[in-house]
Specification:
three-stranded antiparallel β-sheet; 3 helices
Length: 162
């Protein structure tokens, strides 16, 4: 008669736990991946959030070229003409656009670029989300369009009435 072996039971339990973990990982998705948001036309839908972003310590050339890129003619993307102010992330359009910009001199000889972003945002788990980016005052924000990308910091958030 075979004796009861605790090591065999422990090995079986570890294997079952590993299989359960693998099954959960394969069947669940990252919330950022599942955030397949419906892309809207800003002609028909009003933004509900205004986000002020400041990009500091830029050379004047980069800031001026970024502004020039925002003013370029619309480009075709997936059979639609897209304004160059439209936010773009992970090869997808985002429900937001850069509506205003201003270049200001900084004391160190660099400039800052202040961007106003109007977006249709999601509110979940205590924060706003524009595309896949969480939006909070003081948080880094990547202002990315089809023709430029700058790192900035959120300095204000305003809810807009539609």
């Amino acid at each position: 008669m075979k004796r009861f072996n605790w090591i065999d039971i422990l090995i079986v339990l570890v294997l079952v736990a590993a299989l359960a973990f693998a099954a959960v990982k394969l069947t669940s998705k990252d919330p950022a991946e599942t955030a397949e948001e419906e892309v809207v036309d800003f002609q028909t839908a009003a933004p509900d959030l205004r986000v002020e972003v400041v990009c500091r310590n830029l050379s004047r050339e980069i800031a001026e070229n970024a502004v020039a890129a925002l003013q370029e003619e619309p480009r075709e993307f997936e059979d639609e003409m897209v304004e160059m102010t439209r936010l773009f992330n992970s090869n997808k359009l985002v429900n937001g656009r850069i509506s205003q910009w201003e270049i200001a001199d900084e004391p160190e000889g660099t400039v800052e670029l202040r961007l106003t972003i109007d977006a249709i945002a999601e509110y979940a788990n205590g924060s706003y989300r524009v595309g896949t980016q969480e939006v909070r005052i003081g948080k880094d924000f990547i202002a990315k369009t089809m023709s430029m990308e700058l790192n900035g910091t959120v300095i204000s958030i305003t809810e807009l009435e539609g």
